Amino acid sequence: MSGGNVKLESLTKRFDEVTAVDDISVEIQEGEFFSLLGPSGCGKTTTLRMVAGFEPPTAGKIMLDGTDVASWAPNRRNVNTVFQSYALFPFLTVAENVAFGLKYKSVPKSETSTRVSEALEMVQLSGYEKRRPNQLSGGQQQRVALARALVLRPSVLLLDEPLGALDAKLRRTLQVELGVLQKQVGITFLYVTHDQEEALTMSDRLAVMNHGKIVQLGTPEEVYNEPADAYVADFLGVSNLMDARVEQGSDGKGPCRLRLGDFTLHAQAGQLDATGAVKLAIRPERIHVNPYEESVSANCVPGMVERLVFLGSITHVYVRLATGAALQTLVRNDGADLPYSQGTPVSIALPAEALRVLPDPGVSVAEIHDETTGDQVLDLTGSGAG
Amino acid sequence: MASTVEKQVSGASRAEPQARRGRIRGNPWRRPWAMEGFTWLYIIWSIVPIGIAVLFSFNKGASQATWQGFSTKWYVGSQVTSVLHNPSLHHAVIQTLILGALTTLICVPIGVGFAIGIDRWRARTANGLNFVMIFSFVIPELLLAVALFLLVTQALTFIKLGTTAEVAGLVVWNLSWPAIIVRARLVSIGRSYEEAAADLGASRMGAIRRVLLPMLMPAIFASAVLVFASTVDDFVIVEQLSSTANTQPMSVLIYSNVHGGLSGPALNALATIMLAISLIAALIGFVAYRWLTRGERTGDGTEALTGIAGI
Amino acid sequence: MGRSETSDRRNRWLWIALAAPGAIWLIILFVVPFYVMLAVAGGGVNEFYQTVVPIWNPIHWSSFNFTAVWHDIVGTGSFIGPPALRTLLYTVIATALSLAISYPVAFFVARYAGRRKTLFLVLLIAPFWVSYMMRMLAWIDLLQQNGFFNSALSFVGLPGSTDWLGGKSVTVILGLVYGYIPYVILVLYAFLDRIDPSLLEASRDLGLSKWRTFWHVTIPLSKPALIAGTFITALPMLGDYFTNQLLSGAPGTTMIGNAIEGQLDSPGQTGQGAVLALMLLVVLLIPMLYYVISTARASREMA
Q: C touches which chains (3+ CB pairs under 8 A)?
């Protein structure tokens, strides 16, 4: 399968006074699993619809393997879409649904049935040819939608939050399957989701969007471990954002010295040459909580355990620093009892190499949090473990 | 021991009046007998008289009031007065069927096209036309009949009174059935299916033909049945726009003969035939509706009924 | 998220083409006829042939027919006044009766019918499919002087020799009720069925008694249903003429529709018939507009 390079150049979409997509440029490689991640209203679905051809862009180019298809009708482009609602035709059987697009590729009848069987086998639904969509479960319908798009061998497959309507366990299974399927088929997947776990699990690269702009672009590891700003840090997993002040910036080699409330800390990640007010971020799994002792090591702040939440394989430990900041940490339940409980005074160690300096966006931590969790369900999965 | 028991008993009896005051009167989950009884009374009042009228169409005698035995003479038996043999009765049946068929065949396609076009045109003109269509739904039929009569006799005189004028008027009177029913269904279908079809390679018209129309088929069918039944029963517009006695359908014939003219049971026979035609249409519609929606149905089957009734 | 409006605009020609036949038909056979009616109302009479002479140019419209009708309404030999008032009276009574009967029935079927809902719906929808003719014919049979109704009356000891079909207001009013009630019931049912039962349950949960719940929650929630039911009955009923014709035929029970018909068919008075029809239209215009606007708004909100 050749082709599948998607290049968006200065793509913009305005609806009356609202700018849904604001001058974004990104290049997606052939065969890449690329995700657009962001809360509802960030412009990711509009971007996808423009690539599919359902919305004409206000400005910019959509290059598919070198050709600008921005003004092409959707049926002329060699891309196919898996819709959020699946949009399976209820009056056709599964086989007829899958075969729908083959008619427009002038595929002879004999070849049609072969390709339909192949496609259904790829999504593990062989034998379901004669069923009707209303006789299938949500997960099965989603697979039919997938088969229907893949049977046409597009160079790019667009997926608009396809797992949104499924329950959590099914979602996890299908996330893995989709990733495997993509590598098998080898075509470019452009995936839109608001679920950061999904994006981290499946993507080769992902773009975090907000207010129509791409805020950060990179691999899941890059985006998670090296968030460019407070917004991205808070969107992917728990970031434990704190307000701090730079005392002495780094000279390029050493750490940056900061003041967090009454305490001095050193940080070795992020924007080390920043000055003035900054935000600090650290992932829950990097924080070490120990019962309080007078002799403190570097980057240790005293505090208290506020709450323990048992989650099966891990326990969330919510602590409050003496500075007043509230942090979420996690501990793996390896069989040993925890040396503290609710109300215990503790020392909270924030290792310098895990402590990240982020530019201050000028808004409070709470406001950032509101923005990123917009429509997200409470993150109880501890998926910050990545 | 005795005193504790006493204390318990007196304590209990002190608590009782309290409880009794808060206790619900009667069983709150009891069946609403009064409402149900009333409903059944209504149903009897509504249906039984019709049954009696049907019964009298089989009356041996010529009375519409006293039962004189069973006979099918009003339908086929009598050489002079039965529907089968009496020419004016005969023609009335045929005229009704012609009007029903012609009106449905014209009204439904243009109504469906109107519904789809108006829904997507999205301009002020479209809204205006929609307005006019709803108006035609709510205006008393007499006013429209009068206006049409004047139109045909004073302005468009090349359309003579008669079947052509009747069909033209019936089409406009019934246009709101497909327009409203199909539009409602269109709105609930949404755009995603056509988008999916376009995504898979269909052109605009192709998507409408291969996807939208099949999904609209139940609504189209329901509105066709309603148009047909409405036309069969109609007489205000038809009466106003009819010319000679030859172009009178059953409804108008009955109306003009109620106070004398053809004998009673013959009218009952005609009315019963009208009823049979409508019911057969309704039955076909119901069966077809259920068959057409077999890929979508998840509920209890009442959608077919309400769909057919156009609710 | 499905905003296809921009691509709709690209294909505008298609939508216009689809809507065109219906639109043209509506304009030629709905809008234009009313203009003709205006032209005839504002027109004159060919004295010799006693035929109508429509005047097409609004500037030249004459008030001849209008003054004639005005005299007919308020003048000494007034014969339009009584039917007009009677129409109003009949319609108000018949509509009120229809609503009073329909509400409990519709309420019962919508809320309490349970598993038998389909059965009840079939029984309620059935008369809908029976033509108006048939339904009136049924009562004509029963109300004959030697018919079932009188026999039943004399059976229980009441006088059984009344001529019910000879010009009684009661007959006409009940005929109107019988004729229009299936529409009312279905409209009420459709609305009442959509009331969320959890609202009523919440009311009981919060402490309101059955009566209070009914009065303070159910009735307000039913308001749209009752309003729709009223419109669906009263507006067409005001133009009814055939019910009276079928069940009475006597001049003492005529409605405005009969007057219009009568004028239209009399040579030389067609113009006045047109004026009457126009007057009825004007009276109904405001309620019709209200209904049309709220329906159009509702359907746009859905879209």
A: A, B
Residue A286 contacts by C-beta under 8 Å, 6 or more apart in sequence? A350, A351, A354
Of B192, B201, B202, the CB nearest to A87: B192
Q: Are A185 and A80 in contact (CB under 8 A)?
A: no
Question: Strand ranges (DSSP E) for chain C?
Answer: 44-46, 51-53
- Which domain does B199 fall in, by range? 91-308
CATH number of the C80-265 domain: 1.10.3720.10
> Looking at the complex, does the CB of residue B201 fall below 8 Å from at least one CB of chain A?
yes
CB A312 within 8 A of CB A382: no
**Domain annotation covers residue B238:** yes
Whole-number Å distance between alpha carbons of B41 and B302? 23
Instruction: Calculate how close chain B gets to A53, using CA atoms only, in Å.
Output: 8
Domain residues of chain C, as ranges?
80-265
Rounded Cα gap, residues C36 and B153, in angstroms? 10
pTM of the model: 0.81
Collapsing DSSP to helix, strand or coil, A17 comes out as coil
Query: Which residues, including other chains, have CB under 8 Å from residue A295's CB and lie 6 or more apart?
Result: none
Tell me whether residue B195 is in a domain.
Answer: yes
Assess contact for A375 and A40: CB atoms under 8 A: yes
Characterise C62 by phi-psi region: left (phi > 0), alpha (psi -120 to 50), beta (else).
beta
Contact predicate C249/B257, CB 8 Å? no
What is the count of structural domains for chain B? 1
A333, A281 Cβ separation under 8 angstroms = no
Angle CA A122–A126–A131, to nearest 5? 125
Q: How many CA atoms lie within 13 A of B196 on its CB side?
A: 27
Q: Which residue has the tokens 């206000």?
A: A58
Report the residue of A85, A88, A91 to disrupt the B interface, i.e. the one with the largest count of B CBs within 10 Å. Answer: A91
B203 found inside a domain: yes
C127, B140: Cβ pair inside 8 Å?
Answer: no
Query: Least CB-CB distance to C4: which of A45, A46, A54?
Result: A54
Which chain B positions have a beta carbon within 8 Å of C128's beta carbon?
309
φ, ψ dihedrals at A245, nearest 5°: -130, 135
DSSP code, position B263: -
Q: Give burial (CB, 10 Å; 0-12/13-18/19+) of A164.
A: middle
C residues 8-67 near B, CB within 8 Å?
8-9, 11-12, 14-23, 25-27, 29-34, 36-37, 39-40, 52, 54
Q: How far apart are CA C18 and CA B121, in angstroms?
A: 10
Do the beta carbons of residue B176 and residue A127 sit within 8 Å?
no
Q: Report CA torsion sign: B58, B61, B66, B68.
A: negative
Nearest to C46 by CA among C273, C269, C277: C269
User: Quick check: is B229 in a domain?
Assistant: yes
- Tell me if B102 sits within 8 A of B169, measured CB to CB: no
Cβ atoms of residues C126 and C135 within 8 Å? no
Report which of A367, A289, A297 is spatially closest to residue A321, judged by C-alpha positions: A289
CA gap A170, A133 in Å, rounded: 18
pLDDT 10s digit of each residue in chain A, 386 long?
468 899 999 999 998 888 999 999 999 999 999 999 999 888 999 999 999 999 899 999 999 998 999 988 888 899 999 999 899 999 999 999 999 999 888 888 889 999 999 999 999 999 999 999 989 998 899 999 999 999 999 999 999 999 988 888 888 888 999 999 999 999 999 999 999 889 998 999 999 999 999 999 999 999 998 888 888 988 888 888 888 888 887 777 788 888 888 888 888 888 888 888 889 999 999 999 888 876 667 888 889 999 999 998 999 999 999 888 899 999 998 888 888 889 989 999 999 888 999 888 777 777 777 777 654 444 443 443 33
Q: Domain of B229: which CATH number?
A: 1.10.3720.10
